[in-house]
Amino acid sequence: MLKTWCSSDWTSEERYNPLSVSELAFGSPYLSSAIKTGIITGIIGLAGLFRRTAVNFNAGCKTAVSNIVMATAVMITLLFLTPLFHYTPLVVLSSLIIAAMLGIIDYEAAIHLWNIDKFDFVVCMGAYIGVVFFSVEVGLVVAVTLSLLRGTFPTPWLTEALINIPIANNVPGVLILQIDAPIYFANSNYLRERIQRWIYEEEEKLKSSGQTSLQYIILDLSAVGSIDTSGISMLEEVKKNSDSKGLKLVLANPRSEVIKKLDKSKFIENIGQEWIYLTVAEAVAACNFMLHTCKPNPAAIELQGRENMV
């Protein structure tokens, strides 16, 4: 019944009248018995036959001769045309890799490197070309080699600035830090962690002594001759962490090259031009003026209140 219904559904549009099982039984009783027995016992897979019929019907086939044509085409392909498909797996795999890479390439980051530091852009492209056309190891070696060509990096160290300015050592709520080395990818993480440690120690010292809470952090950049994108990212993280604690980051005496890169990266716009000073003395005087004339930072008050509740 199922076979008759499926065949009639596909042949009604072509106005065919296929033979049913009963008609087959009239012509060949042994064939009819074999078909019935096969259907009942599951030897004949009707689903496969229906699927093949549906494919042929959608392809425009009219008679069973289409199966002969299909078998002939498959045989010719396997015997003579197989060498033409020898490189097909490699081509398909390459296209999948290229399609996946297009989604992970950060064009905006490359443009950002080009605008800030051309050498960092060269290192980025060298690593990219090495990985794409050779291997990950080659790309890593190229990036490290180009970075070493920049020159020897001085040993970075961060100290609390003890400047010969009386007001600088007597202003509670102001922390002055001096970076005595260029800021590169090799020392940016160390500087970030060290700055955060100084801030924590200063906050604990002021809290234990009962003085005014820390509100301003002055970074003396007079000894910073150059900075790369990793250094700028470090300053952005310090700025973000300071804002979360209700602290204000202030820059003092940055050099022209550093100012240019900070301006191109829009860090100056983020921190505000009014918080960049030519000397440490001017920065300290401005912070001291703000401490005595302006209201405390609401974020700092809220954060301090939460700490007291805890």
From TrEMBL:
Residue ranges crossing the lipid bilayer per the database entry: 30-51, 63-81, 87-107, 119-149
Keyword Magnesium in record: no
InterPro entries: SLC26A/SulP_dom, SLC26A/SulP_fam, STAS_dom, STAS_dom_sf
GO CC annotations, alphabetized: membrane
Keyword tags: Membrane, Transmembrane, Transmembrane helix, Transport
Gene Ontology biological process terms, A to Z: transmembrane transport
Keyword Transport: yes
Primary location group: membrane
Subcellular localization, as worded in the UniProt entry: Membrane
Domain STAS: 164-287
Source organism superkingdom: Eukaryota
Membrane topology: Multi-pass membrane protein
Family recorded in the similarity comment: Belongs to the SLC26A/SulP transporter (TC 2.A.53) family.
Protein name: STAS domain-containing protein
